[in-house]
Amino acid sequence: MSAGHYDRNNTKRLDADWVQAQLRRPDARYLVFDESLKLYLDNINFWPHWLQSESALELETSSAPILYLGEDDTRVLCAVQTSAQLDNPTSTFTHLRAAVPVLPPAVAAAASHARSLFAFHKAHQYCGWCGSKTVSQQGGARRQCTNCGATAYPRVDPAVIMLILHPTSDHVLLARQPRHPVGMYTCLAGHMEHGESVYDAVRRETFEETGIEVGEVRFLDSQPWPFPYTLMLGCVVIAKSTHITLDRDELEDAMWVSRADVAKMLAARDGAMRWRRLETGRDLNKDLPLEQVQRFVPPSQAIAGQMLEAYIQRPNSGVFDFSVAEKTESRL
Ligand SMILES: [Zn+2]
């Protein structure tokens, strides 16, 4: 979900005429979103339904600006948000959360970039200082107030996500929230607060949600998560205590899971994700009796999935001998 392999041209995009020319280029390809930030997806090929500039610029648009995302070796990448009902029998507007498990990483990164930017523009239409209207600039890379001139840059909300290791046995702590797909367990996570370091937030969130005290913490990797513009900061930690006291306002369940069971939950996730139908986001596990639901963990596109893969692959010795796998290069 991070850093699509394209040049954002942050210097050239300062020139408004240059941006307008890029948006009209015949080789420009547009991701299309609807007003609820769903992505227009070809459900046969599990691929965005890209539009060329001519078709994209004719679309009925909402108040959202047309976005210039960047440029790779072969094309210009843009995104448009439309209020129109598009008529294509095999493509539908799909929630990005349901689409991510089936999209190649570079495509998911571009869609993630666009979704977060559209959310930023929707939430920052008025100046936070004087209340006047703001306008998009630089192909959507910032907004500026029409009265006082204050600028607003795309907001990023940092959140910590923790792979918590049992202090004495080969187990990790996994939990689920009521809103998660039925059967899915994942790492604890929570937003950072002002005045906290990453390590402070890891300790506070873990204690608040499970009553578990955390010892050593190590930062592993980060990942953008476009709901709406979170940056996940992945850490591995060793617990100091093991008794779970669940915060029922946040979590439905939490448990220590053995290495063997984590491996089973990793193996089960692809089938489980396919059960969530792309068109509707409907969770087919809801139709099953709970005892028949196979437990699974998030897909490899989510940092929780990557951290659990790293846990399974690490040698039994060396608790902090972790690295999240080099991200697979792929083209759009
Ligand atoms: Zn202002």
Structural class: alpha+beta
Number of domains: 2
Would you give the CATH topology of the largest domain? Nucleoside Triphosphate Pyrophosphohydrolase
The N- to C-terminal Cα distance equals 13 Å
Number of contiguous helices: 7
Instruction: Summarize model confidence as the mean pLDDT.
Output: 88
Strand content: 25-35%
Poorly predicted ranges: 326-332
Level-1 CATH class name of the largest domain: Alpha Beta
Which ligands are bound? zinc ion
**CATH superfamily (homologous) name of the largest domain:** Nucleoside Triphosphate Pyrophosphohydrolase
Largest sheet: 6 strands, mixed
User: What is the architecture of the largest domain at the second tier of CATH?
Assistant: Alpha-Beta Complex
Query: Which percent range fits the helix content?
Result: 10-25%
Rg, rounded, reads 21 Å
Question: Which geometry do the CA atoms define?
Answer: globular
Number of strands: 16
- Run of helices and strands: HEEEEHEEEHHEEEEEEHEEEHH
What is this entry, summarized?
This protein has helices spanning about 15-25, 55, 95-100, 105-125, 200-210, 260-275, 305-315; strands spanning about 30-35, 40, 45-50, 50, 65-70, 75-80, 90-95, 135, 140-145, 150, 155-165, 170-175, 190, 215-225, 230-240, 255-260. By secondary structure, the chain is an alpha+beta fold. It is globular and about 60 Å long.
What does this structure look like?
The protein is α+β, with helices and mostly antiparallel strands. The protein folds into two domains: 141 residues, Alpha-Beta Complex (Nucleoside Triphosphate Pyrophosphohydrolase), CATH 3.90.79; 164 residues, Nucleoside Triphosphate Pyrophosphohydrolase (Alpha-Beta Complex), CATH 3.90.79.10. Bound molecules: zinc ion. The site of zinc ion has 8 residues, from loops.
